[in-house]
Amino acid sequence: MQENVTEQIKEVVTDDIWGGIREFLEFGFHFGSGNKEINITVGLLILVLFSFVVASFLLKWIRMLFTRKMDATDKNKFISVFKFIKYITYVIVVFATLSLAGINVTPFLAASAALLVGLGLALQELFQDIIGGIFIILDKSLLVGDIVEINGKVGRVIEIKLRTTRAITRDDKIVIIPNHKFITETIYNYTQNHRTTRESVSVGVAYGSDTEKVKNLLLKSVENQKGVLKSPKPFVLFEDFGDSSLNFSVLFFVNDSFADPRIKSEIRFSIDSLFRENGVSIPFPQRDVHLFTQPVKEDSSNSMLED
Fold this sequence. Notes:
Layout: H1 2-25, E1 28-31, E2 38-41, H2 42-66, H3 72-77, H4 79-100, H5 106-122, H6 124-139, E3 147-150, E4 153-160, E5 164-169, E6 174-178, H7 181-184, E7 188-189, E8 197-205, H8 211-223, E9 235-241, E10 246-254, H9 260-277, H10 300-306
Domain Mechanosensitive ion channel transmembrane helices 2/3: 83-124
GO molecular function, one term: mechanosensitive monoatomic ion channel activity
Subcellular location: Cell membrane
């Protein structure tokens, strides 16, 4: 008796419940026959939706794992990257679904491959910029506030994006730098290790000048200059014996290299004033020109005519 009840329940579950679910999942459109049969069913559509949900969840989890140690600003920069990856994943899911439905996707894949190769060549620098931006954010080789020199221009970094970095120059102009330049070219970062940099001002004095006096005057010119650090102490170098002058440099340290042209200008004003007050002359190149003259010989023909 019990065995009959069990068999009846099994038949109900197998035939009625699972049978009804199977019929529901297999409901749809069926085209062709044999190897060329195409089946677009409710089950296939549910599989597609389920694949989309799973892919979105996995990508979101990977993004959270990848950016867990970043601040909110850097995390937001990766949203567009993961959106692009999500769209690529969706395309792969669609092609897989079409293949399961019996549709030959080989022509689509071949056309997509050719399109992607052409697109990749056309957008090569764009991808380089994005990869460069990812490297910059991950290894912290460049930070907002850093002072960099690129192509002879000095600027303070004000924004780092995935594709470009923006910097403001000393004359308040915005420079937009593609990120691939930071991984393919040599970039000077004045503040990578610390904000203190060493600067210098060079000057020449006339031969015969008191070099010790010149040294003291150069040190005095930077002693009370605003922006020049007291420690490390400024110092003077006697650089060379020039063609027309004795060449000196006064070296000093600042903590704002972005403003060093103004500081150097003030120091030059001070040097000129101190040299004038103390009788130290700044020479300029001089050249001696020697003219050699020869007496003009009297023309013999003219002499004969006179005779």
